[in-house]
Design brief:
With about 260 residues, this protein is of the alpha/beta class. The protein has a single domain (about 5-100, about 165-250), classed as 3-Layer(aba) Sandwich (Rossmann fold). Helix content is about 35%, strand content about 25%. The protein has helices at about 45-50, 85-90, 105-115, 120-130, 135-140, 150-165, 180-195, 205-215, 235-240, 245-250, and strands at about 5-15, 20-30, 35-40, 65-70, 75, 90-95, 170-175, 200-205, 215-220, 230-235. The strands form 2 sheets. A 6-stranded mixed beta sheet has the order 6-7-8-3-9-10, with helices on both faces. The protein has a 4-stranded antiparallel beta sheet with strand order 2-1-4-5, covered by helices on one side. Helix 3 runs parallel beside helix 6 (about 150-165). The radius of gyration is 18 Å and the shape is globular. The two termini are about 35 Å apart.
């Protein structure tokens, strides 16, 4: 069932890397049980925004954030909030598949083990692999190296690795950019399935993909000082067919970007 309640909400979010302002005044609410796509030209801050949603930018020297990101009505940047707990509940899948040089089983079991939730690992691993639509392909290869899997399988393994921690939100940074069309279709089908249980936020350069898989879409661009701003955000069908801002229309129709 689709839930319109916000899972994540950015309020006047701003990000700096040292003296460079990467994001300015971003406010948007990410709904549960839907896929939100973030689109825009290269360098406009899409991935930086995504990393703000689970405090991954904390790992970048000199990065600092102003504003709020609310998760379960609590600001994840408030004093005393543990960034590791935030990343535990808001998972991330990166652009290129990055399996650990371990077995398929140990890749999926890694997160639960280091977070002290190692009870019934067999069931946890199987459930995550089934959720990632990978179980049938790897159930006889669990003790073999994950690096032997195809690129598309490796990316679904990375999704299973995130799912094993039972997150509430899944962030995906161009998860299909390194994959062929067949593997891309499998990931897109998987996203639609996962949206029944999770809020999903995807950064993509592929506007056709955004139109195919997302329920909500956000268009970003750079201002003159190269700070990323949110131009327009709304239902994907409206943003692609009847955008409110001419800059959105120009980008979608290929007039710039």
């Amino acid at each position: 069932m689709v839930d319109n309640v916000a899972s994540l909400e950015a309020r006047k979010l701003e990000l700096w890397y040292g003296n460079f302002q990467a994001l300015r005044g971003i406010s948007m609410a990410i709904p549960r049980n839907r896929i939100t796509a973030i689109i825009g030209p290269s360098g406009c801050g899409k991935s930086s925004l995504l990393r703000c949603f689970n405090r991954m930018n904390d790992l970048v020297p000199g990065a600092r954030v102003r504003g709020e990101v609310l998760f379960d009505n609590r600001n994840i940047y408030a004093p005393g909030v543990d960034p590791s707990e935030v990343r535990f509940r808001i998972g991330m899948v990166f652009q290129k598949p990055n399996p650990f040089p371990k077995t398929v089983f140990d890749n999926v079991a890694f997160g639960p083990r280091i977070n002290g939730i190692g009870d019934d690992l067999e069931q946890t691993v199987e459930h995550a692999l089934r959720q990632a639509a990978l179980w049938d392909e790897v159930k006889d290869r669990l003790r073999k190296s994950a690096t032997e899997l195809s690129g598309g399988q490796q990316q679904r393994l990375c999704i299973a690795r995130a799912l094993a921690l039972k997150p509430e939100v899944i962030l995906m940074d161009e998860p299909c950019s390194a994959l062929d069309p067949v593997a891309t279709l499998k990931i897109e089908d998987l996203m639609r399935s996962l949206a029944e249980e999770y809020a999903i936020v995807i950064v993509t350069h592929n506007m056709q993909q955004a139109a195919r898989v997302s329920d909500m879409a956000a268009f970003m661009m750079m201002e003159e000082d190269r700070a990323g701003v949110l131009v327009e955000y709304g239902p994907t069908s409206q943003l692609f067919t009847n955008p409110k801002d001419k800059r959105t229309e120009d980008y979608i129709t290929g007039r710039f970007g």
